[in-house]
Task: structure prediction
Amino acid sequence: MTIPQHCPGFQQLKHLQSFMCKCPNCGKEREIFSDEFEKKHICKGCGKEIDFTQCTLDGEA
Result:
């Protein structure tokens, strides 16, 4: 039996990017990963949907 060098699923996740997006309604920041970009995200500050056209690349996860 061999010991894995990385966590299971590492190869699928190693190229994820992290995006910081400010809610256009209240300004609260939310971190979104590139594999979640197609999902609907609701702001925890005001409860409205976040507009991803205003997001900027922050770094890689």
Notes: The chain has a mean pLDDT of 75. The chain has one domain: 17-60. The first strand starts at residue 17 and ends at 22. The longest helix spans residues 10-13.
